[in-house]
Amino acid sequence: MRLLSLLYISLAVLLVPPVAVKLLTNDNTISSGFYLTVLWTAAAGFATFGAATFLLHDKPFVKKLNLLVWAMGAVLLCTELALRLFMPQYADSDHDTLFRFHQVYGWEFVPGAEAVVNLEKNRGRRIRINADGMRDRQYSRNKQAGVTRIAVVGDSFVSGLEVDRRCLFTKLLEDSLLTGAEVMNFGVNGYGPAQEYLLLRDKIAAFKPDLVVMLLYLRNDLDDLSGAVEWVRGFTRPHLALSPDGALIWPEAPLIAAFDSDREREGRGPGSLYLLKLITDRLDTRYGLYSQPQELRLCRTEQPEDMNRAYRLLEPLLSATDSLVRSWGGRFALAIAPSIVQVYHDKYWRRLLSYRDLDPGDFNLNLPQQKIKQICQRLNLACLDLTPGLKKEAARGTELYFPVNKHWNEAGHRIVAGLFDSFIRAGADGACVDRPQAAERN
């Protein structure tokens, strides 16, 4: 029993966060408060149990308690093994190996990369990146006669790693909804509008698309633009600024990688425990929207300064993007992708306000769409707001988003493809700019 007590105390020492981070990570940091709480709790539990076992080793109940602890440990171990065999988690995903550092964009898809990704229900999906760094088939630089070439730029809502490539809205457009068209998917996970502009300038321009559509995901793209958030650990994005006369100021020096190598960047962490990852996913599904409610900033009628700054940056950036696309004779349009909270108003928004005891009169759930449409009107840009179409389908009871990472599922991509098709067939030019509708109050 005394040996067991020493074992428990040794485990407690190893689980103290300052020690654990050196064993579990390569950068000596664990950013998640949840993991830190788990480590401190486990360390305290083992220390207490070790001390009790040492001091009370001759008590019968201590022996029974040890048997219970070991039995629980065996159950947890068997559960972990079963998950690894039959239900792999994102923790064992090669997701991050699809990306590499880029001194201009911050990161990019690795051309020709292949990786097995475990996202949502689609476990073990093999993701392939083409030679041009796209999650798409290979395209020729020279466009065939009579073919309309459409390029879609955006973040993970465009790349859609959660679904089969055949189910992506860009693929559905190319295969069946738009005859005689090539719909090129240039989505890169985590990208914001500034990176998408740079991608257009450096790479997409060579393909000379007839139409470029930028998908703006409201829940994080404005924060991406203002520099409020980065993305994968070890990467940083280019941060824009405004001159006194309102012109964009781009970073002059190349970006610097936070890690010396891809292997070092990937690191290790407590997320490698499948059972822990499964539990955190389930908690995020149930409570995630309430613990990280970006909509409370996006939709507050009195906008915080970081949101105002994002809109001030967005307008000249969209203008510059339009000028860039026009330089090769193409047309530019913007598509607005709402968050799951905006689509499922009653299911999430009302509960979120009630959960945090907030006054609905302080918010306008449609405010980001209204502001962005006003910018598009001033710039005479075509603008497709996906919100009404997605809300209409959601009202029929259709689930359009995956529950954990809140991205479109197969049904969501199908509806979005139909909305894009109608928009493009109507003529995606400045004459069909979507006019802001009346404010949606709560």
Percent helix range? 40-55%
* Class inferred from helices and paired strands: alpha/beta
- Helix tally equals 17
CATH class (first level) name of the largest domain:
Alpha Beta
Within the largest sheet, what's the order of strands?
6-5-7-10-11
CATH superfamily of the largest domain: SGNH hydrolase
- What are the secondary-structure elements, in order, as H or E? HHHHEEEEEHHEHEHEEHHHHEHHHEHH
Annotated CATH topology of the largest domain:
Rossmann fold
Mean of all residue-level pLDDT scores: 82
Distance between the termini: 62 Å
User: What spatial form do the alpha-carbon principal axes imply?
Assistant: elongated
Runs in which pLDDT lies below 50 for 5 or more consecutive residues are 261-271, 429-442
The total beta strand count reads 11
Which architecture name of the largest domain does CATH use? Answer: 3-Layer(aba) Sandwich
Q: Could you walk me through the main structural features you see in this protein, from its secondary elements to its overall organization?
A:
This protein is an alpha/beta fold and 442 residues long. The chain has two domains: 2-86, no CATH class; 139-432, SGNH hydrolase (Rossmann fold), CATH 3.40.50. 46% of the residues lie in helices and 12% in strands. It contains 17 helices and eleven strands. The chain has helices at 2-15, 17-24, 33-55, 60-86, 156-159, 169-177, 193-202, 221-226, 262-266, 274-291, 295-298, 305-326, 340-343, 345-355, 367-379, 387-395, 410-425; strands at residues 99-102, 106-109, 114-119, 122-128, 148-153, 181-185, 211-217, 241-242, 248-249, 331-337, 382-385. Strands 6-5-7-10-11 form a five-stranded parallel sheet, with helices on both faces. A hairpin with a 5-residue loop joins strand 8 and strand 9 (248-249). The radius of gyration is 25 Å and the shape is elongated. Mean pLDDT is 82; it is low at 261-271 and 429-442.
